[in-house]
Write a structure and sequence with these properties.
CATH class of the largest domain in chain B: Alpha Beta
Number of helices of chain A: 2
Helix content of chain A: 10-25%
Number of domains of chain B: 3
Oligomer: heterodimer
CATH topology of the largest domain in chain B: FAD/NAD(P)-binding domain
CATH architecture of the largest domain in chain B: 3-Layer(bba) Sandwich
Distance between the termini of chain A: 23 Å
Largest sheet of chain A: 2 strands, antiparallel
Largest interface: A-B, 37 and 47 residues
Radius of gyration of chain A: 15 Å
Largest sheet of chain B: 6 strands, mixed
């Protein structure tokens, strides 16, 4: 699963760090650090963090296989 | 053919090419689909990677809390696009409406979006830049290489340039307990973006965290050993710093070279476009089929005197991409202006720095809440009697209020009382921005005047 936090929107409420501490941690009083990639075992916690964020700053994409683009291998780079 | 039917056909079966497969390109493509574009969509990117997020690269990745390879951006929706990754665009023929690619292919378009962004400004001496141990940090691969080297037993890191990226790198290295020297040409870190008053606070953060901070100096030469590994740097004050890792953080240059000779208003300052993201040609006439978004764009902003702003900001890339995408498939009267108020964040030395507006336009600064000494404060920048920008250190929740002040052209100094106003907040003081003719590190907002197709560059670094 991939995720991104809109840190312009984030106000450091730290709900995510409480609900999914393996993915989100507070760095100092207000700054949020997160891992933009999380394993499927984090799905439930992440969904709760997304829902709980008071400013709705977390975008989560839980599709495992995106239909495009194909993995950036040597022969890729051309048309699908 | 009337305008409406052309737009309808464009939305149904048009050909859209997006050059630049990073944050702006991806969000624009998603917005096109979301708004009902069902034609062909081609994404061109010079890197072999699908769109990824850059902010973690100078923070989480260097700290080993995230992997550079796992920074791909989440998608808002499926794109049904053709991806041409690892293949740079090399030219544009505006008359024939086609983009030339490095592999010799050509892509025809009805609408083109240019979101080619910026790249790290390289070390000025090419042979020294090639030394093993000399890095820049802009892309995913840069971050992976630097992180590997930091893991590998580093004696001292030298960071050249104390802008946001340089300061974040220094912060991450200190957190890893690596000895760090920072060399900054200006009077203090962050001085180009936030001015000298805030720069002093930033300098204190470096020093308290054990950074060997050298301001007012330039690195004049890098020295390698017999094996071609960097071993030392020579500074303009005569000092020598021994370092086996050197990170060059001297800002960014815009990726516009591929447009040279195309007739588009593109140059070292970026690509000029109108508030609707339509690119200007060199004659100053707006095109109707070439659009621009993200770091490479510069567009007039009514809140800031209609001057052309270039913004190297994450939030701008998203907001401008959405507007550009909407306008690309809309009739002229349905188009929207890009009115996003500049905003950015940086986290370094455990402090969350956020800003709105254009601080660098400010002449004066006033601490409206908190205290500089505690490094918890809100400070407001004034320009000709109005609020033009604000910055917070660990005070981010107040920022929205100041954004509204900027949007409503509120007077400066602010006449209202604020919570937690201290003695230092009673009187505005000069914001102490460096003279723009004396270059420091690259600013995050450049204000480049009024001429839409201005290709000149007045930034002329003195030779060391």
């Amino acid at each position: 699963m991939r995720l991104v936090v809109d840190l312009n929107r984030c106000q450091g409420y730290a709900q995510c760090a409480f609900l999914a501490p393996d993915v989100f941690t507070m760095h100092g009083d207000e700054a949020l650090l997160y891992n933009p990639y999380a394993g499927p075992d984090q799905k439930e916690k992440l969904e709760r963090a997304v829902a709980a964020c008071p400013v709705q700053a977390i975008l989560l994409d839980d599709r495992d296989d995106l239909p495009e683009p194909a993995p950036a291998g040597a022969a890729e780079g051309g048309a699908r | 053919m009337n305008g409406d039917s052309y737009v309808e056909r464009l939305r149904r079966e048009g050909r859209i090419v997006v050059v630049g497969a990073s944050l702006a390109g991806l969000r624009a493509a998603e917005t096109l689909r979301e708004k009902g574009f069902t034609g062909s969509l081609t994404m061109v990117g010079d890197e072999p990677h699908e769109p990824y997020d850059r902010p973690p690269l100078s923070k989480q990745v260097l700290l080993g809390k995230a992997s550079a390879e796992h920074t791909a951006l989440p998608r808002r929706r499926d794109l049904d696009a053709e991806w041409r990754l690892g293949c740079a665009a090399t030219g544009l023929d505006m008359a024939a409406r086609k983009v030339m690619l490095a592999d010799g292919d050509e892509l025809e378009y009805d609408r083109l979006l240019i979101a080619t962004g910026v790249r790290a400004r390289p070390w000025f001496h090419p042979a020294e830049a090639q030394l093993d141990g000399v890095f820049v940090l802009r892309g995913r691969d840069d971050a992976a290489r630097l992180h590997r080297r930091l893991e590998d037993g580093t004696r001292r890191v030298l960071v050249i340039g104390a802008g946001f990226t340089g300061s974040e790198i220094a912060s991450a290295c200190r957190e890893r307990d690596l000895p760090v020297t920072v060399a900054e040409r200006g009077a203090s870190p962050l001085v180009g973006a936030l001015g000298g008053v805030i720069g002093e606070v930033a300098a204190g953060m470096h020093l308290d965290h054990g950074v060997d901070l050298r301001c007012g100096v330039m690195v004049t030469a890098l020295e390698g050993d017999a094996a071609g590994r960097v071993r030392a740097a020579h500074l303009s004050d005569g000092a020598t710093v021994e370092a086996d890792v050197v990170v060059v953080s001297l800002g960014a240059t815009r990726n516009t070279e591929w447009l040279a000779g195309s007739g588009l208003g593109a140059g070292p300052r970026g690509i000029a476009c109108d508030a609707g993201c339509r690119a200007f040609d060199v004659r100053g006439i707006v095109t109707d089929d070439v659009f621009v978004a993200g770091d490479v764009a510069r567009s007039p902003h009514p809140l800031f005197g209609y001057q052309f702003l270039s913004l190297e900001h994450w939030g701008n890339a998203v907001a401008q991409a959405e507007i550009a995408a909407h306008n690309m498939i809309s009739a002229s009267t349905d188009r929207l202006p890009h009115l996003w108020v500049p905003a950015f964040w940086s986290s370094q030395f455990g402090v969350n720095i956020k800003s709105v507006g254009v601080p660098s336009m400010g002449e004066e600064i006033l601490v409206t809440q908190g205290s500089l000494e505690e490094r918890r404060f809100t400070a407001v920048y004034g320009h000709q009697g109005r609020v033009i920008g604000a910055v917070t250190f660990d005070h981010g929740r107040w920022l929205q209020f100041y954004q509204r002040q900027i949007e409503s052209v509120a007077p400066f100094p602010p006449p209202y009382p604020t919570v937690d106003r201290r003695s230092e907040g009673r009187k505005p003081v000069p914001a102490a921005f460096p003279d723009p003719s004396v270059p420091t590190h690259g600013p995050t907002v450049s204000v480049s005047g009024y001429s839409p197709a201005d290709q000149r560059i007045t930034f002329t670094p003195a030779r060391a």
